[in-house]
Amino acid sequence: xxxxxxxxxxxxxxxxxxxxxxxxxxxxxxxxxxxxxxxxxxxxxxxxxxxxxxxxxxxxxxxxxxxxxxxxxxxxxxxxxxxxxxxxxxxxxxxxxxxxxxxxxxxxxxxxxxxxxxxxxxxxxxxxxxxxxxxxxxxxxxxxxxxxxxxxxxxxxxxxxxxxxxxxxxxxxxxxxxxxxxxxxxxxxxxxxxxxxx
Length: 198
Fold this sequence. Notes:
Order of helices and strands: EEEEEEHEHEHEEHEEEH
Largest sheet: 5 strands, parallel
Strand content: 15-25%
CATH architecture of the largest domain: 3-Layer(aba) Sandwich
Shape: elongated
Number of strands: 13
Low-confidence stretches: none
Structural class: alpha/beta
Number of helices: 5
């Protein structure tokens, strides 16, 4: 049997280019989410989930269940996380120019929202190893730099967890102008958060 199916890609908000798939055919409508991260009310604003003024009738949802576990009962919103990180980074970096933050990011993509907001709010560019992966995302290029002389780092080392010793950043920075750095590490990770919340 053959059936024509319309497939619509919807933004998943997980990392740049991530999508959810909406399948529509004679036998009904199915939404496959994959990894997604949508803010409250964001799905309601997606025009392609609506038909006229009504939400489309979706018979089945194939939902990513990475965090379907009681220890992830409450995951803070992206805005709550950003505000907490902003407050911490602002208070730390304002102490002296030698107080720096390392964002211990476990994946290559998915932190663009954080980098852009930190840079815009604090006026500090985020140090990354290479700009290559951001070439197709011009909106972030203004907020990241390969110059190590900044107070916010998202640089990486193959063994980040083992590598950060004392006040040494993964990029090798230990001091600026002969003054030792004071480094704090922030691990922006839902998985890590879930393992530690009570």
